[in-house]
Design goal:
Layout lengths: L8 E2 L2 E2 H14 L3 E3 H8 L3 H13 L3 E3 L5 E4 L1 H7 L7 E2 H20 L5 E9 L9 E2 L2 E9 L3 H4 L3 H16 L5 E5 L11 E5 L4 E2 L9
Parallel strand pairs: 9-10
Antiparallel strand pairs: 1-2, 3-5, 4-5, 6-8, 7-9, 7-11, 11-12
Helix pairs in contact: 1-2, 1-4, 2-3, 5-7
Amino acid sequence: MVRIDEDAEVAGYPIKAIRKALRWPARRHHGQVETRRLATELGVDDAEAARAAEGLVEAGYLTRSGWDDIWELTNDALRLACSRLGPPIPRVRAWAALQEMLDRADEVNASEDYLYWVEHVVLFGSLTDATQTTVGDVDVAAELRKRPSLNTRLLGFNAAVKEHERVMRRLKNRSRFLSLIDWSDGVLEQVEPEVVYRREPRWRIPHDHRLGG
């Protein structure tokens, strides 16, 4: 994950505010953002948000769509939305955080207390580059699958969402090093993820993999 200078500005706004405004559309709205959404996130009126959008076009973060008041996020915008504030993480510590998460995936899959399996985990971002001695974050995505049991078949939509979130929280475990997203997240369409965990046939990336990079 890319680290950003939290004191920088883009289109006349703090980059932290622009990053926050782009995170939701990057992950949940097919890479598009409406002017009114920018207005809400930036705390301005629609006219000022439109001017901000034009500034983001000039800065290379947005392009104009074929619809009024709808803007397309560029690859730079997607990278900004996923960026991390704060100091870099030593590679060895980041790799340890990944392995700790995979341990928790094993724990979830071995326990009957969870109604979802962790089917796959993929890694993307700077930790996949063995030449990097520090990284911005540990970027991972998890694919969960309902267990074929009576309990999961009887789950309502809201209950299923809560159970899904429960497993994701367990995987994340409040780690400040992990940036964990769902398998359906649009960010995965913009990167080249590497499988680091598979439930069946069981496999996980070795502890010493890439540590020599």
